[in-house]
Amino acid sequence: MRTSLLIGALFFTGFVFAQEKKTDTLKVKSIEGITLKKQVFKKQSDRFIYDVAASPIAKGTNTFNLLQQTPMISSIDGKTLKIMGKSDAVIYINSKKTNMDAEALIEMLKNTPSEDIQKIEVITVPGSEFQVESTEGVINIIMKKSKNNGYNGTLKVLDEQGYFNNPSGGLSLNVRKNKWAFNTNFNMGSWKEKEKYTLSNGDATFRNESYGMNTDPNRNYGGVVNIDYEINKKQSLGLTYNMRYNKSFNSVLDVTNWQDGVLQNRTVNTENAQTRNHSFNLNYEIKTDSLGSKLTSNVSYLWFNRDKVSSNETFPISIESQYGAIRQSVPQIINNYAANIDYIQKTAKGNSWLMGISYNHTNTDNDAKQDVFADGNFVSDISQTNHFIYKENILGAYITYEKKFNEKLSGKIGTRYEMTKSTGEILGKTDFDRNYNNLLPYLNLNYVINADNSISYTFSSRIRRPRFWELNPSRTYFTPENYTQNNPFILASKHYNQEISYMFKSAFYANLSFNYAQDASSQLPLQGTLSKQGEDEHGNPIIITTKFLRYIRTNYGINKQLGLTVGMNKSWMKEIWTTNYSVNVAYRMFSGTVSEDPTSRPAAGTTETLIPYTIDVKNFNFFAQFNNSIRLSSQKDWFLGVNYFYAGKNQVEIGESGIQQSLDLSIKKISGNWTFLVEVYDVFNQNYDRLTGIQPNGSYNNITTFGYRRIISAGATYNFGNQKLKKAREMKSANDAVKSRT
Question: Domain Outer membrane protein beta-barrel, which positions (predicted)?
Answer without folding.
Answer: 287-718
